[in-house]
Specification:
With 506 residues, the protein is α/β, with parallel strands linked by helices. Helix content is 46%, strand content 13%. It has 23 helices and 13 strands. Strand 3 (106-108), helix 6 (116-121) and strand 4 (132-136) form a beta-alpha-beta unit. Helix 3 crosses helix 4 (57-70), helix 10 (193-203) crosses helix 11 (211-222) and helix 16 (326-340) crosses helix 17 (352-366).
């Protein structure tokens, strides 16, 4: 009670200001976020800052670190915190600290920032006086001293990275020894409610019980007729803070975003290959059982996606002719309008092998080259690519693989986003879209989601819509789509080709 009274007093709240050490003006909702993080930290409780992507989770964390450092007694060594992020975002964090909190003593511990010998030799003693150590999920697995060290705060960026409780990196993260744990994620529930359980098992272990207890609890909730997930919402509410960009009371000066379905027809070649694949799948389902059946279904789902993109992606013939793909035809129509307006576009695909052909095709439409980023792009190069896209008016497009470019990058120079193929997960797609639709964006953003008519893409699109509705039930929250568990006739119905809807008009 004393702690809460102190924190609630005007003097207590007045101390929760980073002051001039933060080289930025916090928006009112960001100030509220910093105070909320501070209160939970002082109560020894974990927090999940789940603000919508682009609302400035990074700056709220930097403000908190500055506040805590400012309250340290003179002459006392700073307590070091650890911040873990995907490797592609480490340079981003270092940049943001230099820009907004230059007095914070930060150290990036990762192969992209130091030699192998330095990395091997580093130990906790060398980090005395450092405010925050920044590293990747992969490095945490490779450097065991990190889980043995006592940290002031342990902060996870893109915390959906620990959604799988059984993954090695999740287990390593959960062994971190820290006074307080903070999870940052714009998508606390990507696919299913266990994503949320895993994040809470990190920030406040035990609050949501064991994985099995939580599964039983949510199963019972799902059977309730009205507001099924209200009890869960009440349980997690004190520890999770989520503000949405679409809420004008949170932020009124972000421009609007328009999402459009860009329906594409198949070329005759695509339709023939697709129909052949449906027949092949039907033949395999007659004999395959168990894990072999599941493996076959996943392989065919991938094949259908590839054929819908371009026959050359499935055939591997390297041709990539425009006339062979309905999506290339649709991309030309959209790109020509963007080129005429002298605007910029981001194109996301989940396939690394698609990035170069799509970039080559767009280069021919715009009459000049653009940029490409995928999982194979060196971490050091990524920052420069982002700068080139943001600052160079001559760069008209940026083709990115969804997993490499879908998180953390700030690409507000784009006013168009194209999802060339669909990830079948609304949260992941939303995260990619929000590379452009975030603070700093002053123009209206158009989002074009490519869907091949008459194919599995159109049917999955309908499933995504229903899944999104489920996702909004908790948090907004989660559902799982297990195509491999469908009965044969349901599955074949899902993938079947509707020739009338699919074929490209000559």
């Amino acid at each position: 009670a004393e702690t809460l009274a102190g924190l609630r007093s005007p003097e207590g709240l007045a101390r929760i200001e980073p002051g001039s050490a933060l080289h930025a003006e916090l928006r009112p909702y960001q100030k509220a976020g910093v105070r909320w993080l501070y209160v939970l930290h002082h109560l020894g409780l974990g927090a999940c800052l789940a603000d919508d992507m682009g609302l400035g989770k990074t700056i709220q964390v930097l403000a908190l670190l500055l506040v805590l450092r400012g309250q340290r007694q003179p002459g006392i060594q700073p307590q070091t915190s650890i911040l873990i992020a995907p490797a592609s975002l480490l340079a981003n964090w270092a940049d943001e600290i230099t820009r907004f909190a230059p007095t914070l003593n930060a150290r990036v511990v990762h192969p992209s920032a130091m030699s192998a010998a330095e990395l091997k030799a580093i130990n906790p003693q060398q980090l005395a006086g450092v405010d925050v150590v920044i590293t990747s999920y992969g490095s945490l697995l490779r450097l065991p001293w990190m889980t043995d060290t006592r940290w002031h705060l342990a902060i996870l960026d893109e915390a959906q990275a620990i959604k799988n409780p059984d993954a090695k990196q999740t287990r390593a993260v959960k062994t971190l020894n820290a006074g307080t744990r903070i999870a940052l994620t714009g998508t606390p529930v990507e696919n299913r409610l266990t994503d949320l359980w895993s994040i809470f098992d990190f920030i406040n272990p035990g609050l949501l019980g064991s994985n099995r207890e939580f599964a039983d609890f949510t199963k019972r909730l799902a059977e309730r007729p009205h507001h099924p997930y209200a009890p869960l919402r009440e349980l997690i509410r004190p520890y999770i803070l989520r503000r949405l960009k679409t809420d004008k009371s949170v932020i009124a000066d972000l421009p609007d975003k328009t999402e459009l379905k860009a329906f594409c027809r198949l070329s005759r070649k695509q339709a023939a290959l697709y129909q052949h694949a449906v027949q092949d799948l039907a033949a395999q389902l007659e004999h395959a059982k168990g894990i072999t059946r599941r493996g076959a279904i996943l392989a065919f789902l991938m094949r259908f996606k590839q054929i819908c993109n371009h026959p050359s992606q499935w055939l591997g013939d390297g041709a990539w002719h425009e006339a062979d793909s309905g999506k290339f035809a649709r991309l030309r129509e959209i790109a020509e309008v963007i080129a005429a307006r002298q605007e910029k576009v981001l194109v996301f695909t989940q396939f690394r092998e698609t990035t170069a052909p799509v970039a080559g095709f767009l280069g021919s439409v715009f009459g000049r080259p653009g940029l490409v980023l995928h999982g194979g792009t060196a971490v050091k190069q990524r920052r420069q690519l982002v700068r080139d896209f943001q600052d160079d008016e001559r760069v008209p497009f940026f083709v990115l693989s969804l997993k490499a470019g879908g998180a953390g990058l700030n690409l507000t120079a784009a006013t168009h986003v194209v999802h060339f193929d669909r990830w079948w997960n609304p949260a992941v797609e939303q995260q990619a879209t929000d590379r452009a639709f975030r603070i700093g964006q002053s123009k209206h953003v158009m989002v074009h989601k490519f869907v091949c008519r008459g194919t599995i893409e159109e049917k999955i699109d309908a499933l995504i819509e229903s899944k999104q509705q489920l996702s909004n039930d908790v948090l907004e929250g989660g559902a799982d789509m297990l195509l491999t568990e469908m009965k044969d006739d349901e599955l074949l119905k899902l993938v079947a080709l509707d020739v009338h809807a699919a074929l490209q008009e000559e």
